[in-house]
Amino acid sequence: MLFGEIFSAPDIAVVLIVVLLLFGGRKLPQLARSLGSASSEFKKGIEEGAGTTGSSAPVDEVKSEQPKTTDQQQ
Questions:
Q1: What integer pLDDT is reported at residue 68 of this predicted model?
Q2: 20: which residues sit within 8 A by CB, 6+ positions away?
Q3: 24 Rama sector, left if φ>0, alpha if ψ -120 to 50, beta otherwise
Q4: Whole-angstrom Cα distance, residue 64 to residue 57?
Q5: 13: domain range?
Q6: What is the pLDDT tens value at each position of the chain, 74 positions in all?
Q7: What's the total number of domains in the chain?
Q8: Residue 26 domain-assigned?
Q9: Taking the mean position of all CA atoms in its chain, how far away is CA 52?
Q10: Torsion of CA 33, 35, 38, 44, to 10 degrees
Q11: Closest residue by Cα to residue 31 from 43, 42, 41, 19
């Protein structure tokens, strides 16, 4: 689904007017800047998280480092 299919032009206009009334004209640039920086930080975190999902140690090495229980020692 596209954004245009969910919300029509009058819906978006009403939301923009409400936002303007709530935050005022002076706060909107600051709000837009903070949303932009938050978005870029989120994207940066997603990219870093995707790069670190591969473990440097194989699964067999990780399993061998776990302590043995009393059942496994016998």
A1: 58
A2: 28
A3: left
A4: 11
A5: 1-48
A6: 566 678 888 998 999 899 889 888 888 889 889 989 999 999 999 998 887 765 554 555 545 555 555 655 55
A7: 1
A8: yes
A9: 16
A10: -90
A11: 19
Residue 3 has what pLDDT?
64
Does 29 map to a domain?
Answer: yes
pTM above 0.85, yes or no: no
DSSP-derived 3-state class of residue 66: coil
Residue 67 lies in a domain: no
Q: How distant is the alpha carbon of residue 57 from its chain centre?
A: 27
Q: Would residue 14 count as lying in a domain? A: yes
Q: What is the pLDDT of residue 38?
A: 94
**Dihedral sign from CA coordinates of 21, 22, 26, 29:** negative
